Hints:
This protein is of the alpha+beta class. Helix content is 32%, strand content 21%. α6 packs across α10 (243-263). The longest helix is centred in the C-terminal third of the chain and has 21 residues, at 243-263.
Amino acid sequence: MTREKLQIKTEAELCVAFIEQMNKIEGWTCYPETAGFDILVVHEDGRQIGVEAKLRLNAKVADQILPGGWSVRYGTPGPDHRLVIVGDITDASEGIAKMLAMMGVEVLKPYMQRQRDPDAEFGYKLGPDFNLSSWLSGRGRPEWGDPHFFDWNPPERCAVPCVVPDVPAGVPAPLRLTPWKESAIRVLIQLKRQGWITAKQITQHGISASIWTSGPTAWLQKGLAQGQWIPTDRLPNFQSQHPGAYAKIEEQEQAKLVLEIAKTIPAQSGLDLQQAPQ
């Protein structure tokens, strides 16, 4: 391999390269735009790495990756480790990298490498290489010293989505699959199944009913029966935004419904629970 000039032009490209390489390492899974990070990397044993991406290292990304002063005070959830990935580190920003390392945040930049590819025109392709296997094992690159995982020891880890969000990372105004949105999807599924929903049922999913039922821009309107609410054309289409999550949550809600029905049926009835209403 020979070193070439880095050819990443956007933070989104930087994130794509990182996710592609990280997901190839056994035990680790990348969740784009999760828990307020560009990428939340989760190990099968539960460990988490919060990742922020910037083409050029600057004070802004330092502010984004470090927790707020109130986080410790109020026990805000967070990842075990924090990482910044950048396209380049200049002489002017090298001090920021050193500062972040001393504060427990590693800064990692890829190198553009010629990688063998028999299908490419000249037998190789150019691609960014983060050397993640070595970094994760603590060896790293000689010029970076010995990277390590500083353990932020959060009182609670970040909430992990039910599926890997099918959204791009490192883009402006990202579409995020948040815990609130997962709860909202459960509301939509119940609304679809019943044809209506009550404010109490909405709050039973752990979210406020106000945005659904209150004000001129409410997502729901009064139904025919007292206390029932039905859809308006303002109801957001979270199914199209997050089809994978919607399908997974719909499956979970159907399984819960089957169990609820099972509790009301005597065991000796012999009813096939798979025939429960869809």
